[in-house]
Amino acid sequence: MTELDIAEVAQRAGLPASTLRFYEEKGLIASTGRRGLRRQYDPGVLERLALIALGRTAGFSLDEIARMFAPDGRPRIDRRMLTDKADELDRRIRELGALRDSLRHAAACPAPSHLECPTFRRLLAEATAPGRRVSGR
């Protein structure tokens, strides 16, 4: 397959060209040269962009993602970092589930006022406690 210009990479990856230029500045991707004024990329950049997108979706920073590539551009994924991120996501899922349940309770609560509901008052207290997060029913 021949090289792809920046417009084609942007279209296939669903990213604006400015993001591709930014990723290149950060060292996440590299162009192979230029044809006229347009940057050219090896077709393998699409797989690399997919890995970057997956990392971003999982909540990794661009610096963390950059460390997941060896100097030659091949993936060098730290399995411990993946495990830590999965654990972090598990905690966040539990927190969001508790928050969802709390919102559902508040929406269906038969108390005349939310401020008269013991569950809602506990949620308010938890939400305003330093360093605390709202934690379920």
Task: Explain briefly what this protein structure is.
With 137 residues, the protein is mainly α. Helix content is 56%, strand content 7%.
How is the topology of this model organized?
Layout: E1 4-5, H1 6-13, H2 17-25, E2 33-35, E3 38-41, H3 45-58, H4 62-66, H5 79-108, H6 118-128
Antiparallel strand pairs: 1-3, 2-3
Task: Describe the protein in words.
There is one protein chain. By secondary structure, the protein is mainly α. It is built from six helices and three strands; from the N terminus they run E-H-H-E-E-H-H-H-H. It has helices at 6-13, 17-25, 45-58, 62-66, 79-108, 118-128; strands at residues 4-5, 33-35, 38-41. Strands 1-3-2 form a three-stranded antiparallel sheet. The model has no long low-confidence stretch (mean pLDDT 88).
